[in-house]
Design a protein that fits this description.
By secondary structure, chain A is mostly beta strands. Chain A is built from no helices and eleven strands. In chain A, a hairpin with a 5-residue loop joins strand 5 and strand 6. Chain A starts with a strand and ends with a strand. In chain B, strands 2, 4, 5, 9, 10 and 11 form a six-stranded mixed sheet that branches. Chain B has a five-stranded antiparallel sheet with strand order 1-3-8-7-6, with no helix packed on it. Chain B starts with a strand and ends with a strand. The relative contact order of chain B is 0.34. The chains are: A mainly beta (114), B mainly beta (111).
Chain lengths: 114, 111
Amino acid sequence: SAVISQKPSRDICQRGTSLTIQCQVDSQVTMMFWYRQQPGQSLTLIATANQGSEATYESGFVIDKFPISRPNLTFSTLTVSNMSPEDSSIYLCSGRDTLITEAFFGQGTRLTVV
Amino acid sequence: SQQGEEDPQALSIQEGENATMNCSYKTSINNLQWYRQNSGRGLVHLILIRSNEREKHSGRLRVTLDTSKKSSSLLITASRAADTASYFCLFSQGGSEKLVFGKGTKLTVNP
């Protein structure tokens, strides 16, 4: 399966600032997804990002807070805007080529907001 | 709810014992995948089972799928301390492309 390089791997940020997380895939993929994992919890889907269209956000997540870009089939970014301590989580990106193939994941970004 | 249900939430066993984890979902699926996560970081793909399959094996892992009950189970046989991790199921809901995780089972294998 494809490999996703995600960066940064971790960051400590001041409240009120923004952080952009990048995911680079080593091959073209149709679908990309962004997840948040709060401490001790499962992964929650933030949004689906497909090239050429606006990202589709899940309930509880909005574009102003988590703007996403998908400029081509190998790259996507997620920005966590106007951060607060409640945004401290692990953020992961994922890619998948078709509905019947396995999904693959970046290594995650561990974000701490102070 | 975005997430599927998994049980148990936590499981503690002795090395050599078998561990069974279950995942339930609400709508039809194309396939279901199982992943392992160590120390809250990267996800390792274990097995993908298609909706027309009932059972699949990979080494010490056995996955079953019962589409009539909308559930899947992951069995790890002859467990090892290195199997200590969190295990998640992942599936597409209905005909949607989006992938949703179960709540996960935290497995501890004691040496």
